[in-house]
């Protein structure tokens, strides 16, 4: 593999490099470095097909770079995701709520489900003071909607996407579920909580009482 990578890097003006890149999954990372002659050459159709993947690859890298700054006191990155209503979307930065809770969860996640009663309690307690947003991850639309109905979850719900640079879980560096993020009205991060923890609810009480 190392030899193939080296060959491609050293022969960016040859069609053979495109062939090797296609065969060994190297084309996406090297696309922008190929000469124009190669891009318009024998493998032109393959390269054009790869272009969309290249753009998605660099968008993902851009998001990961942004996510490295997601810390308490930092501004959270914006996102737009599909909501439960047909053809509707939720955009973070258009929200005017004083406090915003982002709950990354999944219909398949036992700890998430076990935490719903407490989340309902706090939603009922503070729904007039805070916006609660559930972000379903690694879910199908059908499983997501069924879980919302089954567990009677009354807050705003959106579903994460891994397409076209919209992977909000990656953007926020979420790797464990549930993960809850508390933001202020300016979208600054006030707290990040992994797993079901009383610290999250104590923070809400401190902010909203």
Automatic annotation (TrEMBL):
Signal peptide: none
Pfam family, one: Thioredoxin_8
Subcellular location: Cell envelope
GO biological process: cytochrome complex assembly
Entry's transmembrane regions: none
Main location (coarse class): other
Iron recorded as keyword: no
GO cellular component, one term: cell envelope
Keyword Nucleus: no
Entries under PANTHER family matching the protein: THIOL:DISULFIDE INTERCHANGE PROTEIN DSBE (PTHR42852)
Name this polypeptide is given: Thioredoxin domain-containing protein
Origin species: Neptunitalea chrysea
């Amino acid at each position: 593999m190392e030899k193939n990578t080296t060959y491609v890097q050293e022969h960016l003006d040859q069609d053979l490099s495109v062939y090797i890149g296609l065969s060994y999954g190297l084309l996406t990372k090297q696309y922008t470095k190929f000469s124009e002659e190669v891009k318009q050459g024998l493998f032109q159709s393959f390269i054009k097909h790869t272009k969309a993947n290249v753009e998605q690859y660099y968008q993902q890298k851009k998001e990961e770079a942004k996510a490295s700054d997601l810390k308490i006191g930092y501004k959270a990155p914006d996102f737009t995701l599909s909501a439960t209503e047909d053809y509707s979307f939720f955009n973070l930065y258009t929200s005017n709520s004083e406090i915003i809770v982002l709950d990354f969860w999944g219909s398949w996640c036992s700890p998430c489900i076990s935490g719903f009663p407490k989340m309902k309690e706090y939603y009922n307690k503070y729904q007039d003071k805070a916006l609660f947003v559930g972000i379903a991850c690694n879910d199908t639309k059908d499983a997501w909607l069924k879980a919302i109905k089954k567990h009677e979850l009354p807050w705003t719900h959106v579903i994460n996407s891994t397409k076209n640079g919209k992977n909000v879980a990656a953007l926020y560096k979420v790797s464990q579920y549930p993960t809850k993020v508390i933001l202020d009205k300016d979208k600054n991060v006030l707290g990040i909580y992994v797993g079901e923890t009383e610290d999250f609810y104590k923070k809400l009480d401190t902010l909203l009482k």
